[in-house]
Amino acid sequence: MQTTIKSPVSFEGIGLHTGIPARMTIHPASAHYGIWFRRTDLEGDTLIPALWHAVDDATLCTRIANSSGASVKTIEHVMAALAGCGVHNALIEIDGPEVPVMDGSAAEFVRRILATGLRRLDAPVRAFEILERVEVHKGEAWARIEPGEMLSIAFHIDFDAPAIGRQQKALSMANGSFVRELSDSRTFCLQRDVEMMRARGLALGGSIENAVVVDGARVLNPEGLRHADEAVRHKMLDAMGDLALAGAPILGRYTGHRAGHALTNRLLRKLFATPSAFRLRECSGDVAARLPGVGANMADLFQPA
Question: What is d(CA 79, CA 238) in angstroms, rounded to the nearest whole number?
């Protein structure tokens, strides 16, 4: 069955890239509503669908906008939390241009969603079943979606900073895996790139309080890493959030190689431009039991299998 949250949950913090404070509240919604954002600080048409075709920029983060120009950016972490907890319908109200970064991961979003709990709705879940491989490339980077019995995510990264280096990981997203394995992994950056990003008007709210910062072989955060492979886990978290913009769960295998927000969005655009590559199917029985978030609970938080 489709779900929503039982009661509103609120968050406050600054945006990672804008540095602008914002208050954000996730509200329950009815069946078939989907996920929408509403800018409460603007007038006029301020509803923005959390869908792949609403993405108008994916430079280091994902931004969605509507036809009236209302936008919200860095939505990927909260979208990953909703998808990873199995929330299909919600209205997200926010009084600024960027989702609060919190600690740079999806952990606090997950914690409060699980704390309030989910309400089952009288409507079946529909998922996009992948029927054919679809792939996009940009230089050495690529992203692929192909048939699979459930959503799984695999990722490969390669950075010249020894603190990150080459990392790869693959996980099924069934049975609370997102909450347990990925939700606490923080965004990361190279110290040498910080000034470059700020010169471009990005990372204005970034610090070691909400990101892992590495300089060569050193991790500059005093507490160190939460996982030895935290960087690739965070890339998988981002992919989970960007794939949630499909508008329904995906039954298929996603693989990203040096990929980012832009390539994952290009992948969704190519997928939905290829009608033979997918079908929308109603989920029940074993298929429904393998959807992301089914069975996730507080005990899954920060307890790697």
Answer: 9
The CATH class given to the 126-300 domain equals alpha beta
What's the pLDDT at 305? Answer: 40
pTM for this prediction: 0.95
Residues of the chain with CATH 3.30.1700.10: 126-300
Please determine, looking at this structure, whether the domain spanning 3-120 carries the CATH number 3.30.230.20.
yes
CATH 3.30.230.20 boundaries in the chain: 3-120
Give the pLDDT band (50/70/90) at residue 191.
confident
Catalytic residue among 88, 156, 234, 261: 261
Residues 237/185, Cβ–Cβ less than 8 Å: yes
Decide: 2 and 123 in contact? Cβ < 8 Å: yes
User: Is residue 243 within 8 Å of 236, Cβ to Cβ?
Assistant: no
User: What's the pLDDT tens digit per position in 5-23?
Assistant: 999 999 999 999 999 999 9
Only one residue has tokens 């960027």, namely 98
Nearest to 108 by CA among 11, 206, 244: 11
Q: Write the DSSP string, 162-230.
A: TTT-EEEEEEE--TTHIIIIITTPPPEEEHHHHHHHHHTT-STT--TTTSEEEETTEE-STT--SSTTH
CB 145 within 8 A of CB 159: no
Residue 129: pLDDT above 80? Answer: yes
Supply φ then ψ for residue 65, to 5 degrees.
-150, 155
Task: Determine the pLDDT at residue 218.
Answer: 94
In whole angstroms, how far apart are CA 52 and each of 94, 147, 248? Answer: 20, 20, 11
CB 120 within 8 A of CB 1: yes
**What gap in Å lies between CA 161 and CA 252, rounded to an integer?**
32
Backbone angles phi, psi at 304, to 5 degrees: -55, 140
**Among this protein's residues, is 261 annotated catalytic?**
yes
